[in-house]
Write a structure and sequence with these properties.
The protein is of the alpha+beta class. The chain has 5 helices and 3 strands. Helix 2 (about 15-20) crosses helix 3. The termini are far apart. The protein binds zinc ion.
Amino acid sequence: MVDLKPWLTVQGLTVRDFALGLDIPLSTAQGWVYQGVVPSIENQGKLTEYVHAHCAHHWVIAVPNGPISEGVCQRCGHQKGFQNSMQEIRWPSNKAPNATDSAVQSKSAA
Ligand SMILES: [Zn+2]
């Protein structure tokens, strides 16, 4: 789970904003943030959704290794796959040599 206290600080949110956003009692939110109270399963879902929706994600993306790189948000721990789109481009190996040759020739002649 997200470490709420630093997360709220980074987002510029108060515990009150947080409680209002989640539609939970302020005392419940304070318990989570200051006392390390673990939310109920139902509230954990709400909390995760709220954090992912409001987080100014700071993605740290793994070194490309295949078409998808795994990115992890440094702030909320959310994970997401990022496509290394350039690696998807493959030129056909059997391209017409004549067309390529004439294109190169007209270029160098100009
Ligand atoms: Zn995030």
